[in-house]
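[stage:ingest] chain + small molecule (zinc ion)
[stage:ingest] validated
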Amino acid sequence: MQNADSALNKLKGVKQMTSNVADYSAEHPKSKCACGHTGDGGNSQHDNALFELGHGACKVPGCKCKRFTWAGWLSAFVVDVALVS
Ligand SMILES: [Zn+2]
Ligand SMILES: [Zn+2]
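[stage:predict] done
[stage:export] tokens:
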């Protein structure tokens, strides 16, 4: 039974982490785009796409990026969410 319990706890941890990330990304960008601007979340430098915040075209004047392309996590996201959980 011990194995089943620890597997369940692990699953709970993942679920908690996922909801933290969802809360966070409603307000903050999570990632950096290939164009160098923030995206993948609310209040980012990219427009919102149909189902995903911050996955549309870049809003920075002069930037030709038409669609968010993931290039890495923002360190603020890693510090605020990923490491805290
Ligand atoms: Zn971009
Ligand atoms: Zn851009």
